[in-house]
Design brief:
Elements (H helix, E strand, L loop, with lengths): L1 H23 L1 E5 L14 E5 L9 E6 L2 E9 L4 E5 L2 E4 L2 E3 L5 H9 L2 H6 L9 H13 L13 E5 L4 E5 L9 H4 L2 E2 L3 E10 L5 E2 L2
Antiparallel strand pairs: 1-2, 2-11, 3-4, 3-11, 4-9, 5-6, 5-8, 6-7, 9-10, 11-12
Amino acid sequence: MKAFIKEWGIFITIIALAILSRIFIWAPVAVDGHSMDPTLADKERLIIVKTATINRFDIVVAKEGDKNIVKRVIGMPGDVISYNNDQLTINGKKYDEPYLADFKAQLTSGQLEKTYASYPLTSSLSSADRSNFVSLAQKTQAFTTDTNTGNPTFTVTVPKGEYYLMGDNRVVSRDSRAVGAFPRSEIVGEAKLRIWPLSKIGFMN
C-alpha cells in the first residue's frame, strides 16, 4: 500500500482536485442562440467560474426554467435603471454601453435587418424566428426598448437580492425585460474564458 501511495498518490490527488474543481468551481457552457451577438455568437463555448463575485456588466450564465442562458448584468440589487432612447442611466448616473455600438450603428443604417436575415437556420433558429428578428428590427423605435410595450423610455427598480440581466442583442433578446430579475441563486457563474472557436480563445473583457 505504501508503495502504491508513493507511486500514484500525487497523480490521484491531481485527478481528485480536478474533479472537485469541476464540480464546485468551474464549468463549460455553450452559447445557445443569438441574444448576445455580436459579443458572443451561437455555439461558442465558454468557461464559467461558479464562485466569482458578480459585478455590473459581467457576462453571466443564469438558470431560466430548465435551461441556462448567457446574459450581461445591467442592474445590481436595488438599482434604479432607466433607458431613454438608448441612453442607460443607473441610480441617476449615465453609462455608456460600448458593447452595443456595432449593432446600434447597424440599426441606424438599416443594416441590422440584413444581418438578421443572413443568420443561418440551425436547431436554435427556425425560418419563423429569423423572419421575426427581421420584423423586430424594422419596427423597433430604439435598440433597447421595453419588451412588453416597445417603448424606448422605461424605468425599472431591481428588487433587493436580485440582478437585472440583458442580452447584448437587445432587439431580439428575451431577458429580464420579459421575465424579471434573477436572484443570486439562479446565477450559475461568470463567463471568464472563451475556448471555442479556436480563433477567439481568450479571457472575457
